[in-house]
Amino acid sequence: MSKAFRREDETEDPAIVAPRAPLPEGVPNYVTAQGLIQLREELVQLDAEQEQIAREREGLVTPESAALAARRAELEHRIASAQLVVAPAEERDEVRFGATVAIEGEAGMRRYTIVGVDEADAARGKIAFVSPLARALLGRSVGDVVRLRTPRGQEMLRIDSVDYDRA
To answer: Looking at the domain assignment, is residue 91 inside a domain?
Structure first.
């Protein structure tokens, strides 16, 4: 409805806060070093947004500022619960958190990096450690063949390489 047809005492529709990707109950909030940096940068950006809205609205609480406050609280909780996982010091061919794994299956060769829930971005080849694919790969080694249940049926995947970013 147009603001011209609203009474002045009516409030705007409440802002919707998109929830963060869920972390299963009882599962640690593992993050890579890059993931922790990204969470902290997101918090800085959120603070800047909140300051700008506060200036523009002269400190009044708006649905938008309330939504940002809710996002900030959730983000602070994620940062506080983050458990940094560092890549192993020695070379490994075993799949662990933070590994970039090259696998070959029916769909050809693919590469995935196993990361924290907040870092996951399948389009960029980053999968959460709690995902079915990551769970199938974790603890396995180069040359192992894993069976993955997919909507199309069982897929056999061979682990071709495991690398760890030491940055």
So the answer is: no
Assigned domain for 9 exists: no
What does the alpha-carbon distance between residue 116 and residue 31 come to, in Å, rounded to a whole number? 5
Q: Where are the alpha helices (DSSP H) in 6-127?
A: 33-56, 63-81
Q: Which residue has the higher pLDDT, 62 or 102?
A: 102
| Nearest one of 25, 36, 49 to 78, comparing CA atoms | 36
Domain with 157, as residue range(s), is 99-164
pTM for this structure?
0.80
Asked if the structure places residue 15 within a domain, the reply is: no
Is residue 22 within 8 A of residue 117, CB to CB? The reply is: yes
Non-local CB neighbours of 71 within 8 Å, separated by 6+ positions: 17, 46
In this structure, the answer to whether residues 35 and 76 fall within a common structural domain is yes
**pLDDT tens-digit profile of 53-78?**
878 877 677 778 788 888 999 999 99
